[in-house]
Amino acid sequence: MQPELVLIRQDIHANPEVGMKEERTPALVAAKLKLWGITVTENVGVFGVVGTLKSNRPGTHSIALRADMDALQLTESTKLSYASRTPGAMHACGHDGHTAMLLGAAKYLAENRDTFYGTIYFIFQPAEESLSGAMVMIEDQLFERFPFDAIYGLHNDPNIPFGEFATRSGPFLAAADKWIVTFRGTGGHGALPHLATDINIVQAEYILSLQTIISRNTAPIDSGIISVGALESGSFTSINILPKEVHIGGITRTFLKETRNMIERRIKELAHGLAASFGCEAQVQYHRLVCALDNHAEQTVRAVKAAERVVGTTKVNPNMTRTTGSEDFSAFLERKPGAFMYIGNGTPTYQFHSPTYDFNDAIIPFGVAYWISLVQQELKE
Ligand SMILES: [Zn+2]
Ligand SMILES: [Zn+2]
Q1: Residues 210, 285 within the same domain
Q2: Helices (H), the chain
Q3: pLDDT digits over 212-255, tens only?
Q4: Which ligand has the shortest distance to the CA of 157?
Q5: What's the 93 CA to ligand 2 centre distance in angstroms?
Q6: Ligand 1 is a single-atom ion; what residues have CB below 5 A from it?
Q7: CATH number of the domain where residue 197 is located
């Protein structure tokens, strides 16, 4: 089966599609699942595909396995024979490999329906990179239409040794939010600052005071990130003018709900407090993108056990360090039991989201075996 899966993986790699523009990839997935006798529901969350496979043994339990299908808006710089044929789109996060590994498991399990009991749902999700595809599928009644007991996710990681696995129970990946603050004043002449509100001073104060939210308001044993990524103020062709409007934009990352709530509240309080003390107005737009990925304790133990059955206890790390990256698999885990697992790509010189990244085809058998091990362990009767 391995050569077939490598061909599928490289075909998806050569034809990447960014989030909510996936057409060829879900069509390919649906065609393969149908070919192997799996019931297919297309257009779940517009571009998502769900394969339903029932055992030919009785059983009331069900499990969902999820892969993401989308690519990034990036131009590939590798010289691979199967490099992206689409400028500005590239599989630089290995979702091509996730799709191929889940297809491999689907094929094996469809051919071996007597090795488990109950129902498997193979979930192929669009638009993970924009952190929106999971919610779009959930809003399209994913849970009602495909009632599973628990859901599991698998992602490659270049920094984990080849073919090894790693995860952790509890908060694992961060919640991601973004915000834009606007300060509005009178504007005025740079030579007559006493007749104006100088909102550049407010902006400078604000950027510095933001970091006190992390250093003074966040519990020392917890963590959070506030990063300012964009500033817009004044004009270099008119530097004698004090601007009447400035914009500051940034992101936050947190692991705990309380910390996330606190940071949102303090970002607003500091903006309005500074505006009041400097005689201008503040407006805050705060958008919550995705919650923290919080692995359920029981399902994490089960995921670890399934991986250990494949590679042995020494090659599964059940206590991986938290990462400040985000994953919209968190949206499933906020509503259903489950666990998210990493598999080692073993390529630390190439990092995610870089134009040189490539999923390692040699880990496909490990990923497929993990999925099969998990199904057979969870759907035992
Ligand atoms: Zn990514
Ligand atoms: Zn990814």
Answers
A1: yes
A2: 2-14, 24-35, 95-111, 133-139, 142-145, 199-212, 257-278, 297-311, 329-333, 364-378
A3: 999 999 999 999 999 999 999 999 999 999 999 999 999 999 99
A4: 2
A5: 5
A6: 93
A7: 3.30.70.360
